[in-house]
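STRUCTURE:
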């Protein structure tokens, strides 16, 4: 039998139901299931017929089978919720209804919700018990009937005043209705009745924070921390609250949270990341074993926090998938399927369309897109400052839309309504990024590009843009996405603005006769293993100094103390303050050699150095983040500056620092890099467009995503392929 016959039988069953002929509908539905037992729509038809005929138990069985076969079939979940209501299984009915709305936010669940409310109200009238009140209140909350939900709970609390869970639920519902003062009182009532549960007083502090009463929230959270010193929850809340005004207090509370007996992987990873920012490696050493154990349980944490630590590609992949699964449920796509068309509408989504490395490096890509084949729309989900960088980005696009104030769903609907064909997300798991927008699949083809160096772990991202260095073929297994592999470094490099006028070394506080080694990466990229190698390099080069980026005041003190313990004069570590971009670029002119970090290396910072003619040494590690710089150096013809391990890294750095002639050779290559492929954004754009069009052609042909290797086809003098 062909699938078409089963589909015809299923359709016949639906038509018979519309005519009111349930007997004929049953015969057709049973035939559809017999012909194609793996067809979920056939089971939906059979379950619906059984429901109409009054056999709720059989309907539940058939519809549950449909959901198992097709978890994203929202109709099956919706009909299952109605069948479960008819069977009196109201908790399961509520879960199925909520799941249907999650899978397909556009699904009309009003009738089913009203039917469930009728059942829950009747149940509550018959049996005024805590469980029936809680069930009714939860459904009322989902229907946004907050006042009625609160009234139901207040009624039942008159008879079950000691039930802490009911008081807690009342607080949540009052908060949802923006009745903050009453919500706090309800949370405190819950705490009074269950004083051994940290959740209730922590909820009260959280409600105060949501209200905007920061002082009261901090005071409440401190009370919670005093009562529950071994719980991470109040300490994490205090870290969130104090971090707005007091970095030292935030750090103290993060460490307290991580040291708590019930510390989660999230709390442990957050403290480890903050410890790297401060170069407080003793904290990392103490917490890493517990973090490793928590990760082995499958608990996912914010992936960027792990990327700076010496985890392998397989571990980063597992964590990213676990984190994404927990954050974003599977949903039915908003967008229609791809179809062949002569001009693609490209959407770029980012929180960094401003004075930020992503915004400044990608600018020329938007300028050079072939408008005869591509329309370019930018969607800003971060801060909109209307600064010169943001204005330049907006001017380079065909449309610039701000979506920072809307929900992920509303943003996805806007992108879908704009008819975006390929949506390129530029943030991944970085600060303020909104990859959850892609979970609604507002575009037929979705990609991650540029902003986060690694897999998103999200099944709703079809491709990640890489190159032969960052994602060699043998590394593809560590990516949830398929690979769109460019023939040049995937880090596009818009030419930098002019640097400030040259200054002497002494003007920067540097000794005039020294060999100036530099590393302007963020401090969280400095590991103790790498710093030990840096100290070995300085020990071998008595005439050298190391110029680092200034970050937190305690970081400089910690690094100097670490250098002192290794027998080095701490004055040989110098720190560059934050300055305007043009002035920062000028600093590279007095640097002899830049030392890259590992396992999270320099990306746009390395490109900045090459643009200014500053050579650098890097270690090509295992992960995407550890290999970006190597790809840049290879493209610049500087393969001799790419190390294979830390010993090789140390040797190369010392040899180049000692040998002025060898350093002149690599410096000349670095100075030439700005005139080569590394900064040829026209050529990059043509190859990038070829990759996008190849991915689109596959989708339009009904084929699933697959690795795309973009060939280095010749380009003419205008950059056209």
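SEQUENCE:
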């Amino acid at each position: 039998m062909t699938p078409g016959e089963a589909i015809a039988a299923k359709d016949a069953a639906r038509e018979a139901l519309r005519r009111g002929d349930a007997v004929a509908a049953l015969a057709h539905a049973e035939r559809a299931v017999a012909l194609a037992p793996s067809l979920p729509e056939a089971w939906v038809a059979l379950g619906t017929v059984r429901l109409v005929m009054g056999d709720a138990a059989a309907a539940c069985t058939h519809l549950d089978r449909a959901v198992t076969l097709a978890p994203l079939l929202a109709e099956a979940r919706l009909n299952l919720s109605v069948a479960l209501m008819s069977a009196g299984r109201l908790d399961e009915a509520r879960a199925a209804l909520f799941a249907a709305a999650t899978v397909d936010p556009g699904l009309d669940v009003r009738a089913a919700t009203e039917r469930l409310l009728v059942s829950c109200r009747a149940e509550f009238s018959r049996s005024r018990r805590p469980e029936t009140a809680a069930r009714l209140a939860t459904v009322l909350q989902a229907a946004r009937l907050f006042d009625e939900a609160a009234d139901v709970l207040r009624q039942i609390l008159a008879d079950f005043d000691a039930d802490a869970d009911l008081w807690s639920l009342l607080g949540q519902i009052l908060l949802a209705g923006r009745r903050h003062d009453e919500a706090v009182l309800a949370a405190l009532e819950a705490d009074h009745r269950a004083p051994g549960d940290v959740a209730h007083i922590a909820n009260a502090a959280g409600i105060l924070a949501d209200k905007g009463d920061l002082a009261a929230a901090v005071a409440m959270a401190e009370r919670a921390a005093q009562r529950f010193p071994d719980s991470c929850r109040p300490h994490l809340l205090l870290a969130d609250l104090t971090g707005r005004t007091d970095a030292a207090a935030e750090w103290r509370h993060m460490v307290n949270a991580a040291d708590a007996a019930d510390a989660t992987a999230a709390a442990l990873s957050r403290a480890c990341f903050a410890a790297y920012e401060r170069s407080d490696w003793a904290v990392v050493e103490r917490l890493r074993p517990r973090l490793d154990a928590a990760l082995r349980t499958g608990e996912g944490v914010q992936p960027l926090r792990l990327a700076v630590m010496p985890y392998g590609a397989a571990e980063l992949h597992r964590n990213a998938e676990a984190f994404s699964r927990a954050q974003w449920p599977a949903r039915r796509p908003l967008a229609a399927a791809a179809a062949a068309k002569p001009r693609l509408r490209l959407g770029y989504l980012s929180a960094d369309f401003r004075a930020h490395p992503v915004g400044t490096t990608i600018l020329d890509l938007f300028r050079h897109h072939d408008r005869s084949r591509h329309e370019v729309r930018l969607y800003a989900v971060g801060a909109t400052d209307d600064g010169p960088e943001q204005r330049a980005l907006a001017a380079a696009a065909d449309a610039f839309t701000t979506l920072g104030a809307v929900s992920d769903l509303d943003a996805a609907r806007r992108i879908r309504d704009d008819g975006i064909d390929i949506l390129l997300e530029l943030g991944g798991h970085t600060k303020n990024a909104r990859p959850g927008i892609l979970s609604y699949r507002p575009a037929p083809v979705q990609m991650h590009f540029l902003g986060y160096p690694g897999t998103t772990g999200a099944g709703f991202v079809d491709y990640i843009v890489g190159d032969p260095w960052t994602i060699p073929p043998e590394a593809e297994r560590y990516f949830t996405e398929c690979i769109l592999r460019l023939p040049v470094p995937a880090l596009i490099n818009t030419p930098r603005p002019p640097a400030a006028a040259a200054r002497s070394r002494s003007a920067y506080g540097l000794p005039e006769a020294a060999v100036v080694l530099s590393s302007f990466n963020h401090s969280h990229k400095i590991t103790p293993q790498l710093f030990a190698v840096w100290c070995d390099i300085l020990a071998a080069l008595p005439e050298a100094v190391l110029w680092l980026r200034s970050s937190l005041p305690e970081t400089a003190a910690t690094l100097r103390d670490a250098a002192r313990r290794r027998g080095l004069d701490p004055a040989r570590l110098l720190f560059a303050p934050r300055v305007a971009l043009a002035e920062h670029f000028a600093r590279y002119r007095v640097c002899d050699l830049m030392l890259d970090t590992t396992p999270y290396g320099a990306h746009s910072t390395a490109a900045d150095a090459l643009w200014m003619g500053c050579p650098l040494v890097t270690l090509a590690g295992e992960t995407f983040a550890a290999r970006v710089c190597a790809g840049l150096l290879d493209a610049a013809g500087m393969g001799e500056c790419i190390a294979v391990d830390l010993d090789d890294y140390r040797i190369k750095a010392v040899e180049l620092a000692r040998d002025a002639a060898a350093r002149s050779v690599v410096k000349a290559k670095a100075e030439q890099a700005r005139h080569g492929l590394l900064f040829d954004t026209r050529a990059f754009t043509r190859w990038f467009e070829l990759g996008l069009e190849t991915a689109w052609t596959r989708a339009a042909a009904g084929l699933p995503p697959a690795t795309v290797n973009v060939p280095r086809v010749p380009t003419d003098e205008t950059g056209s392929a």
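REMARK: Residues 495 and 532 are 35 Å apart (CA to CA).
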